[in-house]
Amino acid sequence: MGDSKTERLQIAFIGAGGIARTHMRYLHKMDDVDIVSVADVVESSAAKLQEEFGIPSCYTDYQQMLSEVRPQAVSVCTPNGLHAPCTLASLEAGADVLVEKPLAMNAIEGTQMVEAAKANSRKLVIGFQHRFEPRTRFLRNAVRDGKLGEILYGRVQALRRRGIPNWGVFGRKELQGGGPLIDIGVHVLETAHFVMGSPNPIAALGQTYRYLGDKPSTVESEWPNWDFKTYDVEDLAVGMIRFENGATLSVEASFAAHVEKDNWNFALMGTKGGATWGPPRIFHDEHNHMVNTEPHWLPERVRGDAFRLKMRNFVDHALHDHETLAPAEHGLMVQKMLDGIYRSAEQGREVRIE
């Protein structure tokens, strides 16, 4: 099926966790999509989704699935450490791929994935749903139309006061690549970078801190009793990215930080105006006065609709060759920024991003 263009997209899944179920929930409602198979090393997880969504087959070996089912497209919904091998195998099997964020464990793997897509003439899309939100489109259009002038500086924050995941493998560096920076910081970072016009990053300065996650849960919170014994990622990451066009972007991401409340936002400052993402507002001068502008109404503002649009965009990209808003090349630039902050934290100095 990999090279055939039909009126229905034949898609398979590698990974049968919560994010796979979210993908399937939207794809299952589309009249031009067939979910043809699911693979997971935990057979019961794959079998559960098979029954829930009426999927024809399930496997514990994704290589076997790719060989026998030969899907036209694959959604990779595994822990970060498996993104690269599963994506590479799917591309080489002739499938277009949607891989969840982040693109990979590091930029070396990400580069291999981008190059493999080109070598196999396949499409590779990164799962960045927040760029499909109306508030993101509003700000992206404003930047594109010059309302902010030249973007000078941005501030990204993905902060949880006490939100260490107590499920999955989010606290294990060898499987995830890092903690809040690569898990939740990536979302706000990629969205701010997209709104800025996706400038090329050239240098990073960063620091990471671990002070709560490797200890037992003692404070009442929404997500108590995480696996502190295997926790070896950061609680808090901070950094600064410099871009080729002279702009800079600061980043703050935490699973657990002593802040007033959770904060998921970014702000931009330019020569003609500034903006915030949540709520979406533009700050500029007009008629010799300082003016704040915000949209009177935005459609589909709930997060779920953004996820639906993300899935719809991938289907249209794979099936009908429509443009994607989330090309893998954008995921690779974001991966290089994440790598840069982590590498700077290890080396104690600013590092170049090649």
Task: Describe this structure as you would to a colleague.
The protein has 354 residues and is of the alpha/beta class. Helices cover 34% and strands 25% of the residues. It has a nine-stranded mixed sheet. A six-stranded parallel sheet has the order 3-2-1-4-5-6, sandwiched between helices. β5, α5 and β6 form a beta-alpha-beta unit. α8 packs across α10. The longest helix has 20 residues. The two termini are 37 Å apart. The N terminus is likely disordered.
Task: Summarize this structure as a short list of keywords or feature phrases.
single chain; 354 residues; alpha/beta; nine-stranded mixed sheet; six-stranded parallel sheet; 34% helix; globular; disordered N terminus
| Strand order across the largest sheet | 14-13-12-11-7-10-9-8-15
Total number of helical segments?
A: 10
Give the proportion of residues in helices: 25-40%
Q: List SSEs in N-to-C order.
A: EHEHEHEHEHEHEHHEEEEEEEHHE
The percentage of residues in β strands lies in 15-25%
**C-alpha geometry:** globular
Structural category: alpha/beta
Profile the largest sheet: 9 strands, mixed
Count every beta strand, where a strand is a DSSP E run of 2 or more residues: 15
Query: Which ranges are low-confidence, i.e. pLDDT below 50, for 5 or more consecutive residues?
Result: 1-5
Write down the overall mean pLDDT: 95
Distance between the termini: 37 Å
Instruction: Provide the gyration radius in Å.
Output: 20 Å
